[in-house]
Amino acid sequence: STLGASAAERGGRYFGTAVAASRLGDSAYTTLLNREFNQVTPENEMKIDATEPQRGQFTYGNADRIVQHATSRGMRVRGHTLAWHSQQPGWMQSLSGSTLRQAMLNHVTQVATHFRGQVTWWDVVNEAYADGSSGARRDSNLQRTGNDWIEAAFRAADAADPNAQLCYNDYNIDNWNDAKTQAVYRMVQDFRSRGVPIDCVGLQSHFTGGSNYPSNYRTTLSSFAALGVDVHITELDIRNAPADAYRNVVNDCLAVSRCRGITVWGIRDSDSWRSGESPLLFDGGGNKKAAYNAVLTALNNGTTPPGTPTT
Ligand code: G3I
Questions:
Q1: Contact indicator for 132, 88 with CB cutoff of 8 Å
Q2: Average pLDDT of the residues in 138-151
Q3: pTM surpassing 0.80?
Q4: What distances in angstroms separate CA 65 from CA 24, 60, 69, 75, one per listed residue?
């Protein structure tokens, strides 16, 4: 009768949400969070600017609050994110070369060590590939430290927390035919063949409507899975929350055994980063939307639980 419980009955999957520490005092928010979800991802609180605002000085208060809220209720935590070109504190933006490489690796080591045993999955590296047809790495200060920066980050995370599952996370890697998808696929294939410790790929899945939800999404999920990694739908939201598109995403995940769960990027439309787009499963008043019912019904193998509103 809830998203999390129904997902758990489908091969132990999870259904999660991004959580903002600033909203944990809002009881309407926590009522939905605690009732519906069995996984959380801190929306901003584990990013580099939040956890290492000054070089070598680590602050974990808001992230710890979310982790405590989650783990005390049996919810699993996805850590987001250890290495990223964006949301870098000023001191990191100003570094380059081997100094930046060492600072990045130290950040990965320190943060993964702090949360060891509490974080089930880490987005070790986020958004490292360029959009468009090039299939190239995104230009960034991290990329300019050398093409091996991604595998170096994964090896550091593995050393710090050998039990965490280590993911590469990106957007616009949903369409199997896109150059960006193919480029990430080749990186994962290469890492698997050389023993670089990667366990999973996260598809953010920020969709702009039924139109950009690709019909080959299931092929993308199963193709990554065939490399021997789990796949996760990590930041799902869909402009105007069409029930059909949400249902298709859920069914695609359920069709791929290595698709271990779905995280929506916020609870209520009023919690979303996409202001004015109403992309989530609950409206601003906390009411279930049609997309919620479509998702729950799909998780229940197409069977609508008794008492579920259909509109
Ligand atoms: O917390 C500060 C606040 O103290 C300050 O007064 C205010 C003024 O701008 O900013 C607040 O920080 C904002 C933060 O969200 C918390 O609300 C940042 O400016 C704002 O840039 C930040 O946006 C986040 C964005 O990532 C950038 O990191 C969004 O909430 C978050 O939903 C979004 O999430 C990303 C994923 O991490 C990666 N994939 C894409 C996704 C959507 O952009």
A1: no
A2: 98
A3: yes
A4: 9, 8, 6, 13
Active-site residue set? 235
State the CB neighbour count (10 A cutoff) for residue 29.
21
pLDDT in tens, 21-73: 999 999 999 999 999 999 999 999 999 999 999 999 999 999 999 999 999 99
**Residue 93 predicted with pLDDT over 80:** yes
Strands (E), the chain: 14-19, 39-42, 76-84, 121-126, 165-170, 200-203, 206-207, 230-238, 259-264
Rounded to the nearest angstrom, the distance between the alpha carbon of 266 and the centre of ligand 1 is 12
Choose among 175, 154, 186, 271: nearest CA to 220.
175
| pLDDT tens by residue, 34-47 | 999 999 999 999 99
* Averaged pLDDT, 223-229: 98
Residue 272 pLDDT: 98
Distance CA 29, CA 44 (A): 17
Give residues with Cβ within 8 angstroms of 8, minimum separation 6. Answer: 14, 38
Q: Which residues line ligand 1 (CB under 6 A)?
A: 43-44, 87, 171, 204, 235, 273
Q: Ligand 1, from 273, 274, 275, 277: best to mutate by most atoms within 8 Å of Cβ?
A: 273
Place of tokens 């600072």: 103
Residue whose entry in the numeric block shows the structure tokens 């996260």: 202
